[in-house]
Amino acid sequence: MLTSIKENNFGGDKSRELGMMYFRVAIILFGAQLLMGLIAATQFLYPSFLFELFDFSVARMVHINALVVWMLYAMIGSVYYMLPDETGRETVAIGLGKLAFWVLTAAVTVVVLVYIFIQTGPGKESTIWLINEGREYLEAPRWADIGIVVVVLIFYFNVFATYIKGTRTGIMTVMVANLLALAGLYVAGMFYTDNITMDQYWWWWVIHLWVEATWEVFVGTLAAYALIKIIGAKREIVEMWLWIEVLMLFGSGILGLGHHYFWIGTPEYWWEIGALFSALEPVPLIAMFVHVLYDWGKEQGHADATGSGHAINNGPAMAWIVTNAFGNFLGAGIWGFFHTLPQVNIYTHGTQFTSAHGHLSFFGAYATILIGMMYLGLQGAYGIKNMKATKLSKWALFMITFGVLGMGIALTISGYEQVLVERAELGATWEAFFTAQNLTWMVQGLAWRLVMGVVTFLGFVFLVLDLLTIGKDAKLREKI
Ligand code: HEM
Ligand code: HEM
Ligand SMILES: [Fe+2]
Fold it and tell me: Is the pTM here over 0.90, yes or no?
């Protein structure tokens, strides 16, 4: 992946080159995310680890902010990658796009350095502007927020103008409309109010309406595009699925927002709205699952366009996309459904159960398909007809997936104990929290989370090694 840009000029396709630049930063931030997770997980077990040198609050914050940012990078990368392909023309303002990339990357670097080195001290008006805005997952200070809006406007201009001038496929139509909503929602997380209920009310517009509406539609478009590329799926069929999913995701996802309005001081009618609509959310996820597996199964075994007799022309990308179909359904659909009814959520709210769901869903629904897109990018970069999975790609996929699943199960066990003892038995008091934190099942669950975190990290090392070598090796093999 490192040499992919220099050595291959993508047949002069600058948009794809820019896409790969975004992928590279994404994978670096993914690594940073995992390292921070390992530090935070160690601190759960040994609270004095790096105490006052690198606090849990900072490790946790960088862990989840890096998560969101690497995913946004990989998303932008994927769009720049597929744009010329889908629209049939070069991206309009590629120079401006590159400038935006460098500005964004410089800003992200400064923000991360400030997160790591300057997070303690008095909270003043200037703190929101320069140090930390204080909203979980979106803690970037306000100057960076404004910078991000400008960069995203440039990105959106590029996508929109290219779309208008080029061929307007169904996939791109959904993409263009959805990106506007996705980018626009970010602004909801920028208001300032000192009323915590109002603050949370708007904050969830970004987090929930991203991950359960606009991001889901986004990965739907990626899956549609990737299935056409990898297995030669019929455009009419994938686009039909895509429209159905858009309809269903927006149907349940938007009002499903109510499952975050149970206990923050918003009116009680949100209980019913949240319960009903969020309980429907797994339905579109089943549709997405069926969609991928149906297309995959249907095309398997047929000769592809090159006549090689092999239906899948990118093994690792396809494997990650199939993992995405399972992972999205499991992490978001099943683990989400578990705690989405207010009758259950009153006990599970903010426990390790939530963390189990957070890990399984972000990984299953997003990390997987975005890694798949990176493999698709490499295939394009090196101009490889049939990119086969290597040992490294298989180990990476297995260890990362096994690791995250293991973390999810460990946290679910801890969460179960927490719900039973802290919430149900002892009535959610301050002492109850500490009693539950020290029970064997809780501590063992947290220990297994760390072990499985290490497995995940090793898998990540394999992934990086594979991304660095697979393209070059496959190209050499095809030449022979
Ligand atoms: C890919 C999609 C999804 C992602 C990435 C995701 C991620 C998350 C994360 C990270 C949290 C914790 C937020 C915090 O820090 O407080 C959360 C909370 C929650 N999610 Fe999801 N989620 C997804 C889909 C779903 C679905 C489909 C459902 C329901 C069917 C659901 C139900 C919930 C509920 C009820 C909570 C609140 C938990 C609590 O009260 O502690 N999620 N989600
Ligand atoms: C090396 C592997 C990892 C380790 C050791 C790890 C560890 C942690 C720890 C200790 C926390 C803080 C939990 C808390 O405050 O109770 C956390 C939060 C979180 N992590 Fe990870 N993590 C890892 C990988 C991942 C991956 C791969 C993802 C998603 C793709 C992810 C997504 C999240 C999310 C969404 C939260 C916030 C959860 C919430 O608010 O409930 N992590 N992680
Ligand atoms: Fe939600």
Answer: yes
DSSP letter string over 417-472?
HIIIIIIIIT-S-HHHHHHHHTSHHHHHHHHHHHHHHHHHHHHHHHHHHHHHHHHH
* Rg over CA atoms, the chain: 22
Q: Report the sign of the C-alpha dihedral through residues 48, 53, 56, 62, in that order.
A: negative
Residue ranges lining ligand 2, Cβ < 6 Å = 34, 37-38, 40-41, 44, 60, 63-64, 67, 354-355, 358-359, 362-363, 367, 404, 453, 456-457
More reliable by pLDDT, 342 or 126: 342
Give the distance (Å) from ligand 2 centre to CA of residue 52.
21
Q: Which value, to the nearest 10 degrees, does the dihedral of the CA atoms of residues 281, 286, 291, 297 take?
A: 170
Mean pLDDT of 444-449: 97
- Residues 75, 179: Cα–Cα separation, whole Å: 10
Asked if residue 246 lies in contact with residue 171, where contact means CB atoms within 8 angstroms, the answer is: no
Q: pLDDT, tens digit, for every residue of 168-188?
A: 999 999 999 999 998 888 888
101 Cα: distance to centroid of ligand 3 (angstroms)? 30
Helix (H, G, I), strand (E, B), or coil: what is residue 315?
Answer: helix
User: What Cα–Cα distance (Å) separates residue 125 from each residue in 57, 65, 129, 203?
Assistant: 21, 22, 7, 19
